[in-house]
Task: inverse folding
């Protein structure tokens, strides 16, 4: 197993500077020859927001990766993602990634145009996934995460980014099936085992602190990361922003499988070390108690509802809610509704139905949902 994570400085979204930083990182962390390969680049587009909001992987970062992957020999480069609420014909226009892909000679792919079943016999809790059919026609998947906080998983990075291969609203049922942080993380690990992404480049030039993955604040970090080992990259990124890597459910679940690492101490840093580039004032999310994971696995479904969910409920700020009802559409447990309140209408949450998946918080365009 390759345990190298290359961390390199880059302060600005400037094409040449980013390309040189990524190239140095790729060389240091053994980016393999892509000769003749069809490569799918998977940026993080949780919401089709402007690049300056730091919600998505930056388009200039994508541009630099396309140049690099082509230089390494790729014969065909595809780019795509499928945010939770996007219907067919999503072109990633708002974030600039669709246009950048085309301008740089790559092909933008719509993940909702056909699905396929992907078996995962080694999966711990999920043995089959319905994913975008594009996987059938690519040799490699490369994850291009943005360094961000995540309300459910605390941190979202290279491994979590692969969940975007599950198209659009078909993601929501996974939240219902795996309502605890640990169970959801376990499903993400199974998905990574099935998809087998070969490499990851992380955009940590400007990260997102506070209530990510979409309602947080941009934070200058000034780094890019490269690795063939997505778990090692995630552990490194967590350390940089101050999370204990082993306490992040995605990391601990992945480590327990002993596929990518046996211990975080095995990670090698050929360039900068996380301790040298720590962002001491990064605003992290507080750790909260979750439901009892063991009970969650062994109890039958009707009894599971009796276990109290100790995660906080989402709360609507009615003053800034624009009543778009996106949250109602994405809520897989039908806990949200637009109700009459006197002469007006407002969004309400049924706290008995809410499973605290925070999908509503993730897609709210007005940042009107607080956790
Ligand atoms: S998604 Fe946000 S703005 Fe839209 S209705 Fe829900 S709370 Fe209001
Ligand atoms: S109300 Fe929000 S947090 Fe609760 S289940 Fe619905 S989408 Fe998830």
Result:
């Amino acid at each position: 197993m390759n345990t190298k994570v290359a961390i390199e400085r880059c302060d600005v979204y400037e094409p040449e500077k980013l390309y040189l930083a990524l190239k140095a990182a790729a060389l240091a962390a053994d980016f393999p020859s892509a000769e003749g390969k069809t490569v799918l680049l998977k940026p993080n587009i949780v919401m089709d927001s402007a690049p300056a909001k730091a919600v998505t992987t930056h388009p200039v970062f994508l541009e630099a990766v396309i140049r690099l992957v082509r230089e390494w020999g790729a014969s065909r480069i595809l780019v795509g993602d499928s945010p939770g609420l996007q219907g067919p014909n999503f072109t990633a226009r708002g974030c600039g990634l669709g246009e950048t892909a085309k301008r740089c000679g790559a092909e933008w792919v719509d993940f909702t145009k056909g699905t396929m079943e992907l078996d995962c016999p080694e999966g711990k809790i999920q043995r089959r996934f319905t994913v975008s059919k594009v996987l059938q026609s690519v040799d490699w998947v490369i994850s291009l995460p943005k360094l961000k906080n995540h309300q459910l998983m605390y941190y979202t990075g290279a491994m979590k980014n692969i969940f975007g291969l599950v198209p659009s609203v078909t993601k929501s049922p996974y939240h219902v099936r795996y309502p605890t942080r640990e169970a959801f993380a376990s499903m993400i690990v199974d998905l990574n085992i099935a998809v087998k992404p070969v490499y990851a480049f992380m955009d940590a030039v400007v990260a997102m602190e506070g209530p990510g993955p979409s309602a947080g604040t941009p934070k200058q970090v000034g780094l890019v990361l490269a690795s063939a080992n997505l778990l090692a990259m995630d552990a490194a990124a967590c350390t940089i922003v101050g999370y204990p890597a082993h306490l992040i459910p995605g990391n601990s679940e992945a480590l327990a499988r002993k596929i990518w690492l046996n211990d975080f101490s095995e990670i090698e840093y050929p360039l900068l070390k996380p301790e040298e580039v720590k962002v001491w004032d990064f605003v992290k999310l507080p750790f909260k108690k979750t439901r009892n994971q063991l009970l969650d696995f062994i109890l039958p479904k009707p009894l599971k509802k009796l276990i109290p969910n100790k995660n906080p409920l989402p709360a609507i700020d009615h003053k800034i809610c624009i009543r778009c009802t996106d949250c109602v559409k994405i809520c897989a447990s039908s806990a949200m509704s637009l109700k009459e309140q006197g002469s007006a209408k407002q969004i309400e949450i049924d706290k008995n139905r809410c499973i605290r998946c925070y999908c509503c918080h993730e897609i709210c365009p007005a940042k009107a949902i607080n956790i």
